[in-house]
Each structure stands twice: as structure tokens, then as C-alpha cells.
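Entry for the shared binder. Reason: the reviewer on the internal report wants the predicted structure included alongside the sequence.
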Amino acid sequence: MRIIFAGTPVFAATALDALLKADHEIVLVLTQPDRPAGRGMKTVASAVKLFAQQHGLVLLQPLTLKAPEIQTQLLALNADVMVVAAYGLILPEAVLKIPRLGCLNIHASLLPRWRGAAPIQRAILAGDHETGVTIMQMDAGLDTGAILLKHGIAIAPDDTTQSLHDKLGLLGAQSIVEALELLQRRKLVPTLQDDSLACYAAKIKKSEAEIDWQLTAEQIDRVVRTFDPNPGAYTHFRNVLLKIWQAKVVAGKVAGKPGEIVSVDREGITVACGSGMLKVEIVQKPGGKQLSSADFLAGNNLQPGENFSAVNHSSSKHD
């Protein structure tokens, strides 16, 4: 099929790779303009741009798809379909109508659950046991189009946003290839979404990564896994911001107030929570490396009874 592909991060590049390997004709790749990123704020090309350049694909990086000239360019390609994966730009209704078979979106959730910008993070944060990939026929709404194909996977107890992203990236790539094959054979049956079951995956705010020790140990564990790799769950200790990269819920009766260090050993730093306890296993100081608790304790004399900062934002409860 003649495909216009629109996407930006690694999740999208994985799908683009699969489409090429399935011998589809990629007539154009759309991706976001290069933007500053990282500590040095150097201009960085997207994963999709790098992939397109490596494979000699025609590439455009428009600021918007609303301009008549870009819409004229897209129309002239006579594409069968546009495949969209984490592109980051809104597709105007005029663009949705350009490909012969419309625009298909690879969405990293089981729609209508977690429509919106951050479905992977929101699924972990909410304690969902399952997520997946939906191939959707795009319409003018936010992830409201008809469902063409869905595949689910379990969320493992130790899944982070990074590990789940990688699993869903592969599943999304397999799913779009399968969907296009079924589409060519006219075997895709659109199913309207049940709007009453919809919930929205709002964009993640950095402030959400601050640990509220009054939450349960299970909820804080989900916060740690949700914000790995970005921006990293954090707390404060001795007036220094401390990122927590790995932790686990531990059994036993809570022996302290929320945020209080209950015990310290080479296996980790056990901290009391609003309910239950959490063993902190990997931490990081500003400008430093990620350290195991044993290595961190070698240079920092923590004592039971000391406290990690406890915040009490009622809006941060993740039930």
C-alpha cells in the first residue's frame, strides 16, 4: 500500500520499521521539527527522522498540517492510507480525508480507556493489570474514532513506563501490519467506541513525580515505576532532592510515620508509608549517578527515625 507515515518518538519508529519490512511503500514521512532536549538543550532530531534518513525516505517536518500548501502536497501523493503513531500534531479534518482509506492511529491503550497523551503512564499509575494497543480509524475527536483492531497484554508487577513502552512499541508495530493486511482483504470491521467507558490520559506533569509518603506503599511503588525513565520519582532528604529509581513493597506492620526511615541495610532503605512500607533500592542525587542503596549508604550515614519529606497533595491520590 502507498502510505504516508506520521510519527515522532521511538514508539513510532518501531512501527515504521515494521511497515517497511512488510514491503509497504512509504511515500512520505512526517515528523515533528527538531527541538532542544537534554541538559545542554541541544537541538535533537526525532527517532522517526533519524530512521527515515537512514532508509532514504522522503521526509517533511511541518510546524502544522493546517497550511493549504502542505495539504496540497499530501493530496498529490495519492496515498492509500496515512498511519499515525505518537505524532504530536493535530490532523485537521481536511487531512483526515486525503488518503483513500483514511488515517489509522496506533494508540497505546485498550480504547476507550486512556484516550489522550499519556496512556502508558496513566495505566501504570492507576494500577491497571492490562493494557494494549488499539488500531483506530481517526476522526476529528481525541482518540474517539472507530476501533479496527485491539490486542491486549498484561502489565507486569515490575513494569516501568520504559519497559511497558518497549513492549507496546513491538505490539503496535505487529498490530498495524496485521491491520493493513486485513484492510487490503476487506476484513476489518469498524466498531464504535462506548463513550461511557472512556477515560482520559492527561499529559504528565513533573510535579506528579514528587512522592507523597502518605499514599500506600503500593501506590508509591506505582509512582516510582510510572516516572521511570522520565522525569524520575523524587523526594527530599536533608534538603536535597533525591530521585528514587527502584523500590518494592515490603510486608510487615508499619513502624513509623509516613516518610520515616524504619530501617537501613545493604538491601535497601525501608520507609513507612501511609499504609505499608517501601524498600528503596536505587537512588540518585542531583548531578550524580544512580546508586544501589548499599553504595548510597556507604557515603551517606542514614539513621532510622530520619524522614524523607512528606507532602500532602489531596489531588495526588492514585486509587
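Summary line for the report: Confidence is low (pLDDT under 50) at residues 312-319.
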